[in-house]
Amino acid sequence: MTPLPTQPISPLDGRYRAAVAELGETLSEAGLNKARVHVEVEWLVHLTEHSLLGGSPIDADQVAALRAWASDFGQAEIDELAETERTTQHDVKAVEYLVRARLEKQGLGHLAELTHVCCTSEDINNLSYALTVKQAIADVWRPRFERVIAELARQAEQYRELPMMSRTHGQPATPTTLGKELAVFVHRLERQLNQIDDIEYLGKFSGATGTFAAHLAADPDTDWAQVSQEFVEGLGLDWNPLTTQIESHDWQAELYTRIAHANRILHNLATDVWSYISIGYFRQIPVAGATGSSTMPHKVNPIRFENAEANLELSNAILDSLAATLVTSRWQRDLTDSSAQRNIGVGLGHSVLALDNILKGLGQIDAAPEVLAADLDANWEVLGEAIQTVIRAEVTAGRSSISDPYAALKELTRGRRIGQADLVEFVEGLEIGDAAKQRLLALTPATYIGDAVRLVDYLQR
């Protein structure tokens, strides 16, 4: 049997590659190495700009050329690093040698010893991960999340006045509007987004055990903590002053936990919309040329929401694992985080894929007002809540002497289908004030929606 050509194992790198390819710019091995090169170059420039450890300022054109090389990191550097790592068996050491070689090529070989000076590998790695994750969230995950929120908000406004039967415990309950129910998801997702935006992307740069020991041995007169803070913050990160060899990864655990929470809300959205489709509240818009079933040509399946469910669950399996694993490191360092962090892109990739599917799915559905109206008209018993509540108010106000209004309505409605005529007859026979009676007689399941329409306005605040 002829073996297949080398194939990707993960569907993110195969079937769904196009949907998540942007993440490869930052959360691939190459993206990580590009960030490592950037950090190494910026540390060297920082040392020379401040004349530290024997360095002196580099000509501005040379600095620009060095930074341009780091920014243009591409296939040539990827190949060179791979070749070097085969010898070093150490990824960050290979990056150091790559930068040294570039310095020689630019005529800056006299500064080669400043490459990676006073650094442990984790000084480079933690900053590189913080930079790449921050960029991936800002450039790839967040825009998709915002687009889902925006589409939900648009539909919440579109359907704000469309009455809908609620289902509590799967049974007919006090009506609402379709728009208000979508607005609930918008509100939940926006709250999570605000919390995600508040995450600190922390970085450390303090040597082998977080003590600046090598720094002070080489130059005891410099405030290395201050130098470290300026360097980390200059990269656009928040400085962590108290660490072991590693940055403690608490910010990562916080970020992945919050994204996982957002994923769970999205999962709830996907299952709710799927269920609304199944009872006809939403119609699916057929996509030209698409096949719903290999054998049943009539079918239009809610595959976007099903795909999203699966990918959200996969995303959370990884993000939950990362959040649990990364906060623990034995004593001053162990290497469990190194293997775990290489899967950040996988966790976020499944979330990105789910967001794309949810957005496409939302764009392929329309509400079915006639179905919603028919369902409301078939469930007049839901007005039992309104009637017994009005009776209670009338009794309290001294306009009625009815005892146990709840029991009276329970006897009339529980487990039974009753129609408008049954309720009209019941209300007309009630001992309550005329104004209250007229309000109840005018009420229908479609108008018993409380303040649902106005509640959508809270999304504008």
TrEMBL record:
Name the domain of life this protein comes from.
Bacteria
For this protein, the Enzyme Commission number is 4.3.2.2
Signal peptide positions (record): none
Pathway, per Swiss-Prot/TrEMBL?
Purine metabolism; AMP biosynthesis via de novo pathway; AMP from IMP: step 2/2; Purine metabolism; IMP biosynthesis via de novo pathway; 5-amino-1-(5-phospho-D-ribosyl)imidazole-4-carboxamide from 5-amino-1-(5-phospho-D-ribosyl)imidazole-4-carboxylate: step 2/2
Q: Which residues form the Adenylosuccinate lyase PurB C-terminal domain?
A: 329-449
Matching InterPro entries = Fumarase/histidase_N, Fumarate_lyase_CS, Fumarate_lyase_fam, Fumarate_lyase_N, L-Aspartase-like, Pur_lyase, PurB_bact, PurB_C
Q: List keywords of the entry alphabetically.
A: Lyase, Purine biosynthesis
Its top-level enzyme class, in one word, is lyase
Report the catalytic activity.
(2S)-2-[5-amino-1-(5-phospho-beta-D-ribosyl)imidazole-4-carboxamido]succinate = 5-amino-1-(5-phospho-beta-D-ribosyl)imidazole-4-carboxamide + fumarate; N(6)-(1,2-dicarboxyethyl)-AMP = fumarate + AMP
GO MF annotation terms: (S)-2-(5-amino-1-(5-phospho-D-ribosyl)imidazole-4-carboxamido) succinate lyase (fumarate-forming) activity; N6-(1,2-dicarboxyethyl)AMP AMP-lyase (fumarate-forming) activity
Span of domain Fumarate lyase N-terminal: 14-308
The similarity annotation says: Belongs to the lyase 1 family. Adenylosuccinate lyase subfamily.
The protein here is known as Adenylosuccinate lyase
Q: What organism does this protein naturally occur in?
A: Leucobacter chromiiresistens
